[in-house]
Amino acid sequence: xxxxxxxxxxxxxxxxxxxxxxxxxxxxxxxxxxxxxxxxxxxxxxxxxxxxxxxxxxxxxxxxxxxxxxxxxxxxxxxxxxxxxxxxxxxxxxxxxxxxxxxxxxxxxxxxxxxxxxxxxxxxxxxxxxxxxxxxxxxxxxxxxxxxxxxxxxxxxxxxxxxxxxxxxxxxxxxxxxxxxxxxxxxxxxxxxxxxxxxxxxxxxxxxxxxxxxxxxxxxxxxxxxxxxxxxxxxxxxxxxxxxxxxxxxxxxxxxxxxxxxxxxxxxxxxxxxxxxxxxxxxxxxxxxxxxxxxxxxxxxxxxxxxxxxxxxxxxxx
Length: 318
Description:
Layout: E1 12-18, H1 24-35, E2 40-42, E3 51-58, H2 65-69, E4 73-81, E5 83-85, E6 94-97, H3 104-110, E7 116-120, E8 129-130, E9 133-134, H4 135-140, E10 150-164, E11 167-174, H5 180-190, E12 195-205, E13 208-209, H6 216-219, H7 226-229, E14 244-246, H8 249-256, E15 261-264, E16 277-282, E17 285-294, E18 298-306
Parallel strand pairs: 3-12, 14-16
Antiparallel strand pairs: 1-3, 2-3, 4-11, 4-12, 5-6, 7-10, 8-9, 10-11, 12-13, 15-18, 16-17, 17-18
């Protein structure tokens, strides 16, 4: 007997402006409930104290999460000088103090060393696993946690303002896997003091930015209505940077059934290098994310993630 699906078939991306105090999992649960969606996930965790852009995938959009997670991130954050905390943010216990408050010139001079490919040690209070357990669980149990260094990419690191001697506000653009808490901690040490992240806001994840995000406060009053669904973006929005590969209806049907198809290359395409990953489409409608294996005259197209978008992403509402 087939299992009954709980919730509606809702497909698309909702760009949430996450409030402080709510976990990413809690935000996903709230959006899933508001849309009565059968399936939901998110692209890139935000700590509970952080605010800002949290892309939430509903339905078939969950199959495209990795393409959003791999996109560039941007953050604005405040460093509080003179205190170190075990979580590297305002939630933790104080572990060290310093009377040193760096001058603006020293701060600006230190930033270039943190731009480019750098190594950083993730915070002990993070979800990364160590010996099969999340690091934060081991740290909360009183264990000494020291995670391995990892390479990350920082594209931009600017001092935006200095409200007072105890605080400095920065803007960072970075690649996947960067910990802003580690960046703040390491910058403070490089400046001969200690520090932690007092405030953090994510401004951008891939092509999703804060100016198009909606808060739960504004989303909730819309009710189960067309107005709420107008804030959903199509599944393929996450795939705008992926090359499209047009297919016939017959070939698209085979892809939907999990079968590979062979496509003849046009004369002008022979000898050129096709994309390895593409979005197969039929009559402009997304069909599947596919792997492309070329030879001289043909492309072997293998389905990787089939997108079941025949039905409307927005269910009927009264």
